[in-house]
């Protein structure tokens, strides 16, 4: 199985839409070990990583949180802000010092309501990110639990 690149905003959005979205960007620096959000919390922001890494994790009763994926440069952190009920489905932690663009989700959703073309490209981008992450999770699960793994290493 050939890995596909993560859909980035740069590749997914036309220049005009990218520029409009970036008007809502705020540059932030986040120390290593900082929790960006917790599973079940209100999804009111999202980030695009400039430098550093973020681990997405899931709560596992009676155990440490299980790391699901590590995100890096140009990757989207958070998609729950776009889809109701706007609650995080996972947690996220900066595993290195992080520099990122942070976006106010409410402001971006309002902008999307006013511009259906922009809403379509942003929804397509975030949907592509979700599909990529689901494929990655499937491959990891097959590697862990299938009798012969995912076949990706053959």
UniProtKB/TrEMBL annotation:
GO cellular component: cytosol
Positions in coiled-coil regions: none
Record domain Cyclic nucleotide-binding: where: 9-78
Gene Ontology MF term list: DNA-binding transcription factor activity
InterPro entries membership: cNMP-bd_dom (IPR000595), cNMP-bd_dom_sf (IPR018490), Env_Response_Regulators (IPR050397), RmlC-like_jellyroll (IPR014710)
Name of the protein in question: Cyclic nucleotide-binding domain-containing protein
Organism: Streptomyces fructofermentans
């Amino acid at each position: 199985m050939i890995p596909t690149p993560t859909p980035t905003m740069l590749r997914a959005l036309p220049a005009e839409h990218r520029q409009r979205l970036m008007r809502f960007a705020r540059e932030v620096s986040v120390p290593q070990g900082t929790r960006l959000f917790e599973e079940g919390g209100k999804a009111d922001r999202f980030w695009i990583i400039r430098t550093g890494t973020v681990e997405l994790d899931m709560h596992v009763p009676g155990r440490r949180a299980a790391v699901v994926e590590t995100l890096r440069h140009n990757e989207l952190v958070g998609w729950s802000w776009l889809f109701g009920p706007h609650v995080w489905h996972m947690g996220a932690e900066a595993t290195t010092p992080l520099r990122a663009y942070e976006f106010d989700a409410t402001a971006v959703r309002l902008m999307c309501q006013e511009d259906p073309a922009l809403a379509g490209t942003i929804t397509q981008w975030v949907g592509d990110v979700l599909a990529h992450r689901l494929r990655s999770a499937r491959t990891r699960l097959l590697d862990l639990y299938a009798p012969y793994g995912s076949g990706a290493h053959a």
